[in-house]
């Protein structure tokens, strides 16, 4: 009994436990080897910096959260619309898909200078970079969900006189929801990558900028504090969408019945 | 009255490619129950697609209800070997689906939702699914899913019901139970049925007329009327009479194999 209880406890809190172990290890290494602060600060130093300058950090973090969420929202709307078009029309698929794949292979950091020329530095390039980097998974997943509709099910509906729109509304979209929510989890983390990249290169606001500025003044503790804040925001958003996914598409995970 | 009519119909899926079915002529009377049997790949499912207007014949004509088929039909019931129930809908909502799509129910849905629900519950009760209305498909057994699938195919009272090996994945007992169920539904409120099956006993037991298709390209090689009074009982399947009919069909299939 006691053993199984301990195991359950371990499984439940595995992620926290691992993090604590790693932090302790990190602290230990830094102290034992006496690594200089400006190269690799110990967790306690990072925490200290974080608390001491939480006002600055939270201001920049909010900016990053804002650009990320706006970019992400645009990406979701865009990905959903284009994904629907690609998934339900073979013609659009043929025409658009290769271009989308090609576009997605371009490192988005290469776009930032272009965006800066067009929109100046600051919020807009960050939003757009977040959008550009995160719409693709949404698009692909929505398209996949729609285009993998079982042919027999489609036959059943069509022989009832269902229009394309009917099929999309009654079957296509609900069926695509699990794919869609799964893609949101990927997209939101990518959106953070996008906005931070853009802020690092072209902004005077946001965590990306903060880290850039801090590292040029050798303030490694602040850089690490920034890194941790981004990571935490990413995990928070991911969990939020994982929860939403569970709520809306529970049917896809229960039993093996699935879409047989 | 004639419900379905094939006039020398041939179909090749790819232009100039091999024929899936060849030169098929047949006619199904209104409220007749026909079965189509034949070896795998002989074009049985193709035949159903032609009737429902999901594919067009390469040659010949298909008529449904006296009119030539052009494009998907408006009001046909279909069920397949896989139940194809929507996993995010309860059994009741799955059966409601056609009423949300087919006219005139569709436009009455708002006002008459309660009445339609009652109707679905009645039909579900008729096939022995009372009490399972609010379960999701994965909570039902294979046989129950198939019952629900047949309810979905019938709820909008189609003139034509098409079944493509609907009992193919079920065990022998459940299968026989569902034969009886289908016969009852059909007798109560007749509709035309086209049943595609591999099971010669099933075809003999259920159909008024059995058509045998040859190996691809599918051609009609036999048409056999089953002269047995309704309602047919399961006991009948253990008589020599029944065995003789099944045997005769088997002979036709056997001959196809040899040639
Ligand atoms: N969508 C399609 N495109 C091209 N060829 C097809 C298509 N559907 C069926 N065929 C071909 O047409 C022929 C008849 O197929 P069909 O599905 O009608 O056979 P079936 O009698 O229903 O077989 P089974 O009993 O195994 O279900 C086969 O040779 C098959 O390869
Ligand atoms: Mg078939």
TrEMBL record, chain A:
Entries under Gene3D superfamilies matching the protein: MetI-like
InterPro entries recorded: MetI-like, MetI-like_sf
UniProt keywords, alphabetically: Cell membrane, Membrane, Transmembrane, Transmembrane helix, Transport
TM spans (from-to): 65-87, 179-201, 221-241
Record has Transmembrane helix as a keyword: yes
UniProt topology in membrane: Multi-pass membrane protein
Residue intervals of the ABC transmembrane type-1 domain: 61-241
Protein name: ABC transporter permease
Organism of provenance: Natronospirillum operosum
From TrEMBL, chain B:
Name of the protein this chain belongs to: ABC transporter ATP-binding protein
Gene3D superfamilies reported for this sequence: P-loop containing nucleotide triphosphate hydrolases (3.40.50.300)
The keyword Nucleotide-binding appears for this protein: yes
Matching Pfam families: ABC_tran
Homology family: Belongs to the ABC transporter superfamily.
Domain annotation ABC transporter: ranges: 4-240
Keyword annotations from UniProtKB, A to Z: ATP-binding, Nucleotide-binding, Transport
């Amino acid at each position: 009994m006691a053993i199984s209880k301990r195991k359950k406890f371990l499984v439940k809190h595995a992620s926290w436990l691992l993090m604590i172990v790693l932090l302790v290890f990190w602290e230990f290494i830094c102290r034992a080897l006496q690594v200089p602060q400006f190269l690799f600060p110990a967790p306690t130093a990072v925490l200290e910096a974080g608390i001491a300058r939480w006002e600055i950090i939270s201001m920049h973090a909010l900016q990053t959260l804002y650009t990320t969420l706006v970019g992400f929202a645009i990406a979701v709307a865009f990905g959903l619309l284009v994904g629907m078009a690609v998934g339900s029309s073979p013609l659009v698929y043929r025409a658009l898909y290769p271009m989308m794949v090609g576009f997605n292979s371009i490192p988005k950091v290469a776009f930032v200078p272009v965006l800066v020329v067009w929109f100046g530095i600051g919020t807009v390039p960050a939003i757009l970079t977040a959008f550009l980097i995160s719409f693709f998974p949404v698009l692909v997943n929505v398209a996949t969900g729609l285009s993998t509709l079982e042919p027999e099910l489609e036959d059943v509906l069509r022989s009832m006189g269902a229009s394309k729109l009917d099929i999309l509304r009654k079957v296509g979209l609900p069926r695509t929801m699990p794919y869609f929510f799964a893609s949101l989890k990927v997209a939101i983390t990518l959106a953070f990558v996008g906005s931070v990249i853009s802020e690092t290169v072209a902004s005077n606001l946001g965590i990306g900028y903060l880290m850039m500025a801090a590292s040029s003044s050798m303030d490694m503790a602040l850089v690490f504090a920034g890194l941790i804040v981004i990571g935490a925001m990413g995990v928070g958003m991911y969990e939020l969408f994982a929860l939403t996914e569970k709520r809306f598409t529970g049917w896809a995970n229960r039993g093996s019945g699935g879409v047989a | 009255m004639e419900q379905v009519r094939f006039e020398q119909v041939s179909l090749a899926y790819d232009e100039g490619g091999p024929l899936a079915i060849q030169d098929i002529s047949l006619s199904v009377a209104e409220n007749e129950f026909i079965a189509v049997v034949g070896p795998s790949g002989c074009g049985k499912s193709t035949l159903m697609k032609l009737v429902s207007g999901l594919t067009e014949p390469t040659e010949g004509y298909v008529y449904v209800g006296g009119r030539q088929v052009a494009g998907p039909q408006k009001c046909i019931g279909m069920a397949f070997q896989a139940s194809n129930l929507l996993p995010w809908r309860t059994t009741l909502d799955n059966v409601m689906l056609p009423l949300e799509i087919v006219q005139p129910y569709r436009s009455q849905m708002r006002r008459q939702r309660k009445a339609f629900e009652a109707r679905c519950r009645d039909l579900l009760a008729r096939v022995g699914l009372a009490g399972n209305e609010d379960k999701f498909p994965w909570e039902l057994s294979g046989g129950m899913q198939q019952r629900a699938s047949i309810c979905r195919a019938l709820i909008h009272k189609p003139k034509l019901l098409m079944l493509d090996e609907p009992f193919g994945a079920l065990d022998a007992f459940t299968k026989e139970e569902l034969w009886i169920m289908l016969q009852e539904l059909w007798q109560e409120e007749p509709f035309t049925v086209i049943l595609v099956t591999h099971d010669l006993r099933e075809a003999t037991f259920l159909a008024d007329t059995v058509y045998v298709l040859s190996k691809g390209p599918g051609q009609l090689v036999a048409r056999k009327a089953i002269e047995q009074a309704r309602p047919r009982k399961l006991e009948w399947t253990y008589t020599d009479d029944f065995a003789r009919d099944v045997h005769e069909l088997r002979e036709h299939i056997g001959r196809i194999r040899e040639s």
